[in-house]
Amino acid sequence: xxxxxxxxxxxxxxxxxxxxxxxxxxxxxxxxxxxxxxxxxxxxxxxxxxxxxxxxxxxxxxxxxxxxxxxxxxxxxxxxxxxxxxxxxxxxxxxxxxxxxxxxxxxxxxxxxxxxxxxxxxxxxxxxxxxxxxxxxxxxxxxxxxxxxxxxxxxxxxxxxxxxxxxxxxxxxxxxxxxxxxxxxxxxxxxxxxxxxxxxxxxxxxxxxxxxxxxxxxxxxxxxxxxxxxxxxxxxxxxxxxxxxxxxxxxxxxxxxxxxxxxxxxxxxxxxxxxxxxxxxxxxxxxxxxxxxxxxxxxxxxxxxxxxxxxxxxxxxxxxxxxxxxxxxxxxxxxxxxxxxxxxxxxxxxxxxxxxxxxxxxxxxxxxxxxxxxxxxxxxxxxxxxxxxxxxxxxxxxxxxxxxxxxxxxxxxxxxxxxxxxxxxxxxxxxxxxxxxxxxxxxxxxxxxxxxxxxxxxxxxxxxxxxxxxxxxxxxxxxxxxxxxxxxxxxxxxxxxxxxxxxxxxxx
Length: 508
Hints:
- This protein is mainly alpha-helical.
- The protein has a single domain (15-261, 345-477), classed as Alpha Horseshoe (Serine Threonine Protein Phosphatase 5, Tetratricopeptide repeat).
- Helix content is 45%, strand content 3%.
- It contains 19 helices and 6 strands.
- The chain has a two-stranded antiparallel ribbon with strand order 1-5.
- The two termini are 37 Å apart.
């Protein structure tokens, strides 16, 4: 839900981090003697905004490029090294610090909430810590976890936290979620309200957020440890009162038009020069696939040309002389039009209803949960169209339900068949079903959950029609982000730099 954040953001901005763009951060391990103070009503939105900044800018850009949604503009140069699969450590310094600053705010929130016996604030903080640590470990691999956030003397004065393995981090994530769910069930008269920028203090939705995040976490490890994943999912589904995020319950931060309250991707672009620099354009990898399936979401995720068509360029083809009016750029609805102030109000999605349904469909298709995988698949697709229903009405003159019906059933009158990816393989093998589910998720996340889409590509190998950047060198596809220079220089426990092509623990 959108909430009024002007007062909340003004109060939060002076705490641990001002979060108006990708490029502002604080090293949480370099000032151990400076105490951090705050109230639950300022620490919560500060932590949420830090997550939004990390997820909505650097993670969105890298993820969307490496997932085949976006590519470098031929008329700019900002992200050439990302297209070349050759970023440097410094590309990830601000991201790393934003993620750890988010968790520092949440860690302090837990301490204050404990002192004041505000259970629901603590529950949200635990869930967001689980979420943020999952982002961090899925991006970088082994990361400081058990000893992280303890630089203050009162917490142990650990300024060189050791790195924990991904399996340790994932165990911790699941424990955070369990602890939070217990607290949510307890009464708390002093719970959050408008200072909660995601759900406005609706703890029933936060409970669903936790269960959905747990389902995501178990499916993430489905290849490396299927027994653990299957057992965990069975226990999750057997939990009394368990429910997952549904249509209209999407977890996101909505942004506005005021200074310090802009979509972080647009804030980064608009801060370069007046009217912004359009560094990102649409990739033909996803656009061609959408066009071939008569998928009207293409007109929401990208801006149509004067011809009325949506058209991309080959992944990495920034060095080709292409006329500016022959390719589409990401739409304002995903914060991708650097010169259009409407981009500033694009939300940053944490967990969405369509991701939730796709996760449930996968669990059922694998035989690890009871339900109907095809029904859940179509609920997922419908939820994505519904999420952008108003935008579709603006762009193509039909609402989400109508566009969904055309995508799934075709339009006989106008000779439009049902899209290939909209026809679920009811009688197919598990592998065939998973291919449809994950590819359907990939379409739905175009430009709005770019990091998660790239993560799922790493986990599953879908979509299997991915186009490698034509400007990439001989190295393989990126499998992780590089540890930032700040860690290799300042943290004596730094384990050493790993190549970009080193797989994650859960990626076989």
